[in-house]
Amino acid sequence: GAGVSQSPSNKVTEKGKDVELRCDPISGHTALYWYRQSLGQGLEFLIYFQGNSAPDKSGLPSDRFSAERTGGSVSTLTIQRTQQEDSAVYLCASSLAQGNTEAFFGQGTRLTVV
Amino acid sequence: GENVEQHPSTLSVQEGDSAVIKCTYSDSASNYFPWYKQELGKRPQLIIDIRSNVGEKKDQRIAVTLNKTAKHFSLHITETQPEDSAVYFCAASEARRVFKTIFGAGTRLFVKA
Predict the structure, then answer these.
(1) What is the spatial distance between Cα A8 and Cα A76, in angstroms, rounded to a whole number?
(2) What does residue B85 show for φ and ψ, rounded to 5 degrees?
(3) In the list A77, A100, A105, B36, which could disulfide-bond A67, CB 3.0-4.6 Å?
(4) Residues A74-84 as b or e (16 or more Cβ within 10 Å = b)
(5) Are A20 and A65 in contact (CB under 8 A)?
(6) Partner A, chain B 53-92, Cβ-Cβ below 8 Å
(7) Per-residue pLDDT tens digits for A29-87
(8) How many Cα atoms are found within 13 Å in the side-chain-facing hemisphere of B84?
(9) Per the CB < 8 Å rule, is A45 touching B103?
């Protein structure tokens, strides 16, 4: 594809349910990031994948959050037992090599927990 | 880990004036400093970046300066136009075992016509 693709674009879920958010990075990009952006706020780092290295999970806010990246390409962010404070836009970005190059963002998934 | 501070959080300027946004970073090993622009409802997009081997970079009305000693970098927009209105994020790439990009909290720029 031409860019980073995320699905779904919008997700409304009930409190306590699990959700999965998907990110398809640009082909050939070895670095992949997940960020969370609450309304009117900045970009909160969640997790970073780089090639076959162990992911940097230092930004995950709780053990309800997890992510994986299969085959070095598609990534899934899973939020278990969702809470209202999880409501935000979840942005995925990928970059060509290590993190010191331009990151290309997906359009985001807007998650609303009701 | 890396920490990026950005200010001001909101900036309002008259069309044609200049706008300056400042950021500081904590990790002296960081060597890549991009700036992203996010228009309302859209994804962040890179507008300019600078690496630690240069002190200044310009692209038309946009310039970025870097002071490695003081660990701060700034975005300068001259002759602002209403379409410059957006949220601007600075970022620093943390250089440890692997590189990781950490963003500032963002500056909401309003350009009044």
Answers:
(1) 11
(2) -60, 125
(3) A77
(4) ebebebeebee
(5) no
(6) 89
(7) 988 999 999 887 888 999 999 888 889 898 999 999 999 998 879 999 999 999 999 99
(8) 25
(9) yes
